[in-house]
Amino acid sequence: xxxxxxxxTGAVGIEALSRGASMVYFVEHSAxxxxxxxxxxxxxxxxQGFRILQLEACLALAKLDQEEVRASIVFLDPPYKFExxxxxxxxxxxxxxxxxxxxxxxxxxxxxxxGSRFAALERTRKLEQGDTALSFYRxxxx
Length: 142
Known about the structure:
Rossmann fold; alpha/beta
């Protein structure tokens, strides 16, 4: 199960579906972006295997946690200019049962370091390419 936070156009989640993900949760606060995700899914003929939540990321995490959803992969890519959003979201994921066994991947600017540890969520790898970087986190013993 994939969780695509700050889903934007839905490209990452759609790619996950195309590569065999059984379920993708698209989380996006913007109504305009949610409509774009719906349009992109429809244009590709994707009718199942997804759920779209039009909520702020931390509210969506709380909702999914309450529903006892468990993720295998969590991808987050907030707008780069909202650097504090990385910390807030990673802290919420660290507190969540939703990501208890998940690989968490944060896409960010190479020059920005979102942090290496958030409670039991610890960065295990950082991959840099050009101006972009991916930080990989895994839950560990606190």
